[in-house]
Amino acid sequence: MTTARLPLFPLNSVLFPGLVLPLNVFEQRYRALMRDLSALPEEEPRRFGVVAIRDGSEVAPTAPGLPEGARPEPGPASGFGPDPRKAFHAVGCVADAATIRERSDGTYEVLATGTTRFRLLSVDASGPYLTGEVEDIEEEQGEGAGALASGVVRAFRAYQKRLAGATERTLAGQSDLPGEPSVLSYLVAAAAMLDTPAKQRLLETPDTATRLARELKMLRTETAVIAKLPSLPAVDFTRRPTNPN
């Protein structure tokens, strides 16, 4: 496996390859990261690693009024304990920042896209922001990915219809699902209304076929559950909110 060192951007959510990630960057440690990425030559990719937080918060608890003992020391690992690696899930996603725009107050508006998965090997907190040694995870298709993809498309459409009915929303204008199995598997994983641990398990799934099989089972179960509910809060489950770091 190829290893590399990447800046880390921990979030209370999971990023999947191919999915867009908007960020509202205001903490000093992540401002420093965006300044360094912005200073790279035009032809170099502005990459960083997104890892889902297992234990901790993406925003350090430094609000006025907190007891002194509850305030972690400011720094790159603030809020993540003495061993940040234990605070993060072991598998993350590389993000490529297409747009980094600095606002007049020094905060940043960032638009990035997930590219490939990685396994986090170690975390370094010696700089202004966390960095990690990571190894690439290749995407294997697995056996029967094409046939499973067809089933997932049908199951996801049924899931959408049930969810739209429960929220009294319309499906008009929704785009076609991708035909490539791995792309489909990540899109469904991102769009389904699942908690972070469930999404993380899908990200960590070893191959596309296994991920699609798990999604097929999950979609059928969730569709049956939604059918028994009288109503659900109106949620646009195809859009990704901006993450405040």
TrEMBL record:
Region (Disordered): 59-79
Residue ranges constituting the Lon N-terminal domain according to the UniProt record: 3-223
A Pfam match: LON_substr_bdg
Entries under InterPro entries matching the protein: Lon_prtase_N, Lon_prtase_N_sf, PUA-like_sf
PANTHER family given in the database record: ATP-DEPENDENT PROTEASE LA (LON) DOMAIN PROTEIN
Official protein name in the record: LON peptidase substrate-binding domain-containing protein
Species of origin: Streptomyces telluris
